[in-house]
Design a protein that fits this description.
The complex is a heterodimer of chains A (242) and B (201). Chain A is an alpha+beta fold. Chain A is 39% helix and 22% strand. A 5-stranded antiparallel beta sheet of chain A has the order 3-2-1-4-5. Chain A has a 3-stranded antiparallel beta sheet with strand order 7-6-8. Chain B is an alpha/beta fold and 201 residues long. Classes of the chains: A alpha+beta (242), B alpha/beta (201). At the A-B interface, strand 1, helix 1, helix 2 and helix 8 of A face helix 7 and helix 8 of B. Chain A: One of its GO terms (cellular component) is bacterial nucleoid. Chain A: This is DNA repair protein RecO. Chain A: Pfam families: RecO_C (PF02565), RecO_N (PF11967).
Chain lengths: 242, 201
């Protein structure tokens, strides 16, 4: 068995003294593990850092084997992830969330989203918006996508300003007004793709955080990660007026 | 499965030696044979030294270093500059810095770095004592001597956040071209870090 694909390094574990088991989010084959011979060496260490995109060739005798990776660097992002706290915490959180995906289950959309986010993650102001978009995409891939296009009560596509915490569907201003204190605010940028003010990003992270917690993490006995809290705190500091 | 060539005691010795870093089954046999040949001159003192060390080694409750006394030799060394505290991931890193002899300050050993995919979270590291030490010892500067890896620097950012309220100067080691390193052989990440951290001549 042999294939070649692009992959983003999610994590690396030392295996024995000289080898490493590398976890990639590949473009066409989802989250996929493989062993890199000599992966614990000093020469390979800069390549095998989380967040880097690599060109991966996987070989094994049988498909169900873990197999061996031969990796070549494609995009090296180590410097940004090491320097910017929001990027380091944000990536850690995203890698943890991607770990929830079943192995070898293709999620090309998430691969493309993660790559695009990592390329733009250095910009602190857009990092919050990007993370909220990642979480929305992850919810959708896990089968818990939010329906933000039409009002759950009236079917209207206009004046969508709330989201129901129970159904995950948008609610228009007229229908939602009596229950406004119990509904989430729907940030416009999630629907329209416009550049949001910081307050909208806060709303978006609150929204995606709630659905990640109640629909994905709590049923698995998990909570929102420390890394996410650290990301939000680092992002808030970077966008706070001086 | 190769046939045993010696009695169970010797085979067990070989198996245990093979579990040491840098040694495989073949080299373990060579080490075992060397010890057997020098039973009186090497094997007996080694066994005695290991038994002695096993009974005496303790982890310093103050800094997490290993020594035969608690607090450890470094913590009780009054010639060290108490206004500075050097944070390292493991005892091996502490020994490396001591070998270099460039710092004369106490240390704090975390016991690893954050690695959520491996299940290492903040509660698994020696962080609570670090915050307490920084406050109680009136530390002026905390040097984060952690590895230049994404996990190492994520840990450094996390500690910086933890110490935000302590109003202490938090620094980290420089990253860039290693001594003896030729640019042609360096990876893009190292070069990028080196360019960003360039200094005026």
């Amino acid at each position: 068995m042999e294939w070649t694909d692009e992959g983003i390094v999610l994590g690396v574990r030392r295996h024995g003294e000289g080898n490493a088991i590398v976890e990639l989010l590949t473009r066409l084959r989802g989250r996929h593990l493989g062993m890199v011979r000599g992966g614990a060496s000093r020469r390979q260490a800069p390549l095998l850092q989380p967040g880097n995109t690599v060109s991966a060739t996987w070989r094994a005798r049988l498909d169900e084997h873990m197999g061996n990776y031969a990796l070549e660097p494609a995009v090296v992002r180590t410097e940004v992830l090491m320097r910017a706290p929001h990027a380091a915490f944000g990536f850690t959180h995203m890698a943890q969330m991607l770990h929830l995906l079943p192995e070898r289950d293709p999620h090309e959309g998430l691969f493309l989203t993660l790559g695009a986010i990592l390329d733009a993650f250095e910009d602190r102001e857009s990092a919050g918006r990007l993370l909220a978009r990642f979480e929305l995409a992850l919810l959708a891939e896990l089968g818990f996508g939010l329906e933000l296009e039409t009002c759950a009560a009236t079917g209207s596509r206009e004046n969508l300003v709330y989201v129901s915490p129970k159904s995950g569907r948008a609610v228009c201003g007229e229908a939602g007004a009596p229950y406004a204190d119990r509904l989430f605010a729907l940030p416009r940028f999630l629907v329209e793709g416009t550049a949001p003010p910081a307050g909208d990003v806060e709303d978006a992270l609150r929204l995606t955080g709630h659905f990640l917690l109640t629909r994905v993490l709590e049923p698995r006995g998990l909570g929102l990660s420390d890394a996410r809290a650290a990301f939000v705190s680092a992002w808030r500091r970077s966008t706070a007026p001086v | 499965m190769p046939r045993a060539v010696a009695g169970p005691e010797i085979e067990r010795l070989i198996q245990l030696i093979a579990r040491l870093p840098g040694l495989g089954p073949r080299s373990a046999r060579r080490v075992a044979l060397h010890l057997i040949k020098k039973r009186e001159a090497l094997m007996a003192p080694l066994a005695a030294a290991m038994t002695d060390a096993l009974g005496k080694i303790v982890e310093c409750r103050r800094c997490g270093n290993v020594d035969v006394c608690d607090p450890c030799t470094i913590c009780t060394d009054t010639s060290r500059d108490r206004r500075t505290l050097v944070v390292v991931a493991d005892v091996g890193d502490l020994w490396a810095l001591e070998r270099a002899g460039v710092l004369n300050a106490p240390y704090h050993v975390l016991g690893g770095v954050l690695s959520p995919l491996d299940g290492v979270g903040p509660e698994d590291l020696n962080l609570a004592k670090l915050v307490t030490r920084v406050h109680e010892d009136e530390v002026g500067e905390v040097i984060l001597a952690l590895g230049a890896t994404v996990d190492g620097q994520t840990t450094a950012h996390y500690i910086t956040d933890l110490l935000r309220e302590a109003h202490v100067r938090v620094t980290r080691l420089a990253q860039g071209v290693p001594v003896g390193g030729e640019l042609d052989y360096l990876d893009e990440g190292t070069l990028s870090a080196a360019i960003r951290a360039r200094t005026q001549m």
